[in-house]
Structure formats: C-alpha cells, structure tokens
Design a protein that fits this description.
The protein has about 170 residues and is of the alpha/beta class. It has one domain (about 10-174): 3-Layer(aba) Sandwich (Rossmann fold), CATH 3.40.50.1000. It contains seven helices and eight strands; from the N terminus they run E-E-E-H-E-H-E-H-E-H-E-H-E-H-H. It has a six-stranded parallel sheet with strand order 5-4-1-6-7-8, sandwiched between helices. Strands 2-3 form a two-stranded antiparallel sheet. About 35% of the residues are buried.
C-alpha cells in the first residue's frame, strides 16, 4: 500500500537525521576522545525561521553525541532523540504521543536507517548525497548535500508552499 502524499501546506513537524543531513557526515574524534561536528549556519537559521513560523522540529539520530545535544539547545529544537536504533519505531511512538499524524511530517535523511521513516511520513526527503536507495524512495531529493544547506532548502520549499515564507522575511526587508 502506498502512503498518502502530503500537502506541503499541511506539514506541521520537521524531523531531521543529524549525521549526513545537518552535517556532512564526517565524525571528528579528538585526541581526548571527544567528538566534533560541523553544522551549516544556513540550516541553523532555517530551523529558527521554521520555529518562528510556529512549527515543530525534532532531531532523530542513531548516535549519541554531545555536539548534537548542544546544537539542538542552541537552535531551541523542540525534541531530540539520540541512540535511536529503530528510527521507525521511535517516530511512531513520538507521533502517537504528540498526536501528529504521519502525513503532517516531513523527514530528511541520507542513509539506509532513514529509509523506513522516509517511506512512512507524508513528505520523505533525501539529501543530494544520500545513498541511492534512499533517493529512490524519497518524495523529494535536495539539490544541496547534507551539511551544506539541504535542510534550509527543504524548509524554504515547505514555507513557500504554505504561504508562510513572505511573512518571515518581511522582518529583514523593513
């Protein structure tokens, strides 16, 4: 059975994989064992605009990482899930708790663990550098790679489709 296609105007929740989507996927392990990640500032500002539009955002990562936690705090991300080995089960429980239907969710991923969620939600997105199988099943493939503005691209697409973009940028035009 094919999932119903989302109307972008109805998207209420943006759920993001972290490694390979918000970052380029590189993991920097320092000499002391701590970890570093590079996040795209365009994506960060896009997330702030998304939240300013009154919409919710969640990070859903298969790995536990302090840089992910800190970035989520900086951006005031509504929900953060780390160490998710079964992302589909996590998203199903989460949506049940928040009473958001899967059709009203956009998810951005890049690798095979993201595939079940991409197929489940209303608007499944693959970043440009995602593996082929993820691109094959995605509703949309970004022109930008993970860690290089792909999240911002999707945020703008959805906000423009819903008529919310112009109100958000008016503050920069006055």
């Amino acid at each position: 059975m094919e999932k119903p296609k989302a109307n972008l105007k109805d998207i209420q929740m943006l759920v993001l994989d972290v490694d390979g989507v918000l970052t380029d996927g590189a993991l920097i392990i320092n000499g002391d064992g701590s970890e570093s990640k590079s996040f795209c500032s365009l994506d960060g500002h896009g997330i702030k605009m998304w939240r300013r539009a009154g919409l919710k955002v969640a990070f859903l990562s298969g790995r536990e990482s302090n840089p992910t936690k800190y970035r989520a705090e900086q951006l005031e991300v509504d929900y953060v899930f780390q160490n998710c080995f079964d992302k589909l089960e996590t998203i199903k429980k989460f949506l049940e708790q928040t009473r958001v239907s899967a059709e009203k969710v956009a998810y951005i991923g890049d690798d095979l663990p993201d595939l079940p969620v991409i197929r489940y939600v209303g608007f499944g997105v693959a970043v440009a550098n995602a593996v082929d199988e993820v691109k094959q099943y995605a509703d949309y493939v970004t022109s930008r790679s993970g860690g290089s503005g792909a999240v911002r691209e999707v945020i703008e697409l959805i906000l423009k489709s819903s008529g919310k973009w112009q109100n958000l940028i008016n503050k920069y035009l006055s």
